[in-house]
Specification:
mainly alpha; 5 helices
């Protein structure tokens, strides 16, 4: 029987040293897709603490625009709008 590390090395699968948890990988992916590496820690925190559906909707909105600069700002604006809509909906129940 072979050790798992040998099998992974043979297949070329290498662990990312920057991502210990799933939310870190997701936050790094957000920063890469939005082209905003300076705010990487913000996206990691959002991935950890925010509702994933809201983050996904805001990301889809930002990436669907024709504008390619300032995606981070557009993403944060849409996320705030979605949070306010959710809070308003919960207050009316």
């Amino acid at each position: 029987m072979q050790p798992i590390s040998d099998i992974l090395n043979r297949k070329g699968i290498v662990a990312d040293p920057h991502n210990k948890h799933e939310f870190q990988a997701y936050g790094n992916m957000l920063a890469d897709k939005l082209g905003d590496p300076t705010h990487r820690t913000l996206y990691i925190r959002l991935a950890k603490e925010e509702d994933r559906r809201l983050v996904e909707n805001a990301l889809a909105f930002a990436l669907d625009t024709e504008k390619r600069s300032g995606l981070g700002k557009l993403f944060m604006w849409k996320l705030k709008e979605l949070q306010q809509a959710r809070a308003h909906k919960e207050a009316n129940l």
